[in-house]
Design goal:
Strand 7, helix 8 and strand 8 form a beta-alpha-beta unit. This protein is α/β, with parallel strands linked by helices. Helix 2 runs parallel beside helix 3 and helix 8 packs parallel to helix 9. It has eleven helices and ten strands. The protein folds into two domains: 234 residues, TIM Barrel; 47 residues, no CATH class. The structure holds coenzyme A and magnesium ion (MG). Coenzyme A binds next to strand 1 and helix 1.
Length: 291
């Protein structure tokens, strides 16, 4: 997964557009982009979409309301008959929340004759101040976890920040901190680190710069809020031919020289951490159909 496009779950027109957008995954939203009066209609439409799509097309993820919202039971009852690939949990506050959601999913998998453990979880794990302190409890908490992402909008509200970016457009310290911790929590959990949304959706140069910075730091995907963002995200997070060839060279060297710990390749010192990185890059290239 390189691109994950958010779509308000009550908007049939946007769902149709999203299915044709080229996004690797769609996040059918039942939370913040759906008004309280529209939640029931969103659950119905999302379930209908899941059933109609089956396993074809982009991966279908449903963002439910938070565990404390009072809505999550109705959300899961509404969409689990459609067998979503994954549930995105907003305002996740640590490993216990993942286990709580896992239990809610297990019951509904049984009720709907779905394989036990099939439904994966993507956590938005930095939306409250408490969530940041609990990131350390996430690794190992749930086999269902497949990706972890961060959010800057709800966190800004929760801490009373006037803004989360400075005049130059860069995230301010509290949000850079959340971004870094999310990256560490995802990689410590051996799941995909997914960068947060870029809300200035008409600014392609800004999006590209943010994608490149995310890739540089280790993120392997980014969420989108508008179909126009998908192509840029897919392009940046698809390993290019040069990177693939370099990774292959590293893997080939260590395969041919199992007793070597370190080597110089293209003028750079290459050892074990680079091998791990090369293997990850090739896995992503394979997922994109390139290697
Ligand atoms: N998914 C699918 N289609 C979308 C879309 C999305 N996220 N965002 C816009 N579109 C469609 C529009 O319906 C429109 O279709 P049309 O040409 O057939 O009329 C087309 O793309 C162009 O949209 P545009 O006019 O540029 O944007 P907008 O003003 O209609 O919508 C937003 C702007 C922000 C309201 C919209 O992009 C959106 O709903 N984004 C997702 C919000 C969300 O889910 N947030 C929660 C997570 S942060
Ligand atoms: Mg939110």
């Amino acid at each position: 997964m390189r691109s994950l496009l958010f779509i308000p779950g009550d908007d049939a027109k946007k769902i149709a557009k999203g299915l044709a957008s080229g996004a690797d995954a769609l996040i059918l939203d039942l939370e913040d982009s759906v008004a309280a009066s529209r939640k029931a209609e969103a659950r119905r439409l999302v379930c209908e979409t899941l059933k109609a799509q089956g396993a074809s097309g982009p991966r279908l993820i449903v963002r439910v309301n938070a565990l404390k919202s009072g809505e999550i039971t109705a959300d899961l009852d509404g969409v689990m008959p459609g067998g979503p690939a994954s549930i995105m949990l907003p305002k996740c506050e640590g490993g216990a929340d993942l286990q709580h959601l896992g239990a809610l999913l297990a019951v509904r998998e049984a009720e709907n004759n779905l394989p036990d453990g099939q439904t994966r979880i993507i956590a938005i794990a930095t939306e409250t101040p408490l969530a940041l302190f609990r990131l350390g409890s996430i690794p190992g908490a749930s086999q269902r976890l497949e990706a972890l992402t961060w959010g800057a909008e709800d966190l800004a509200g929760a801490i009373g920040a006037e803004a989360n970016r400075d005049a130059s457009g860069a995230y301010t310290d509290p949000f850079r901190y959340a971004r870094s911790l999310a990256l560490f929590a995802a990689t410590a959990s051996e799941v995909a680190p997914v960068d947060t949304v870029y809300t200035d959706f008409r600014n392609e140069a800004g999006l590209r710069a943010e994608c490149l910075a995310a890739r540089r730091d280790g993120f392997t995907a980014k969420m989108a809020i508008h179909p126009a963002q998908v192509a840029v995200i897919n392009e940046v997070f698809t390993p290019d031919a040069k990177a693939i060839a370099h990774a292959q060279k590293i893997i080939d060297f260590f395969a041919a020289n199992p007793d070597s710990g370190v080597v110089g390749i293209d003028g750079q010192m290459i050892d074990k951490p680079h091998l791990v990185q090369a293997e990850r890059l090739l896995a992503r290239a394979k997922a994109a159909g390139l290697a």
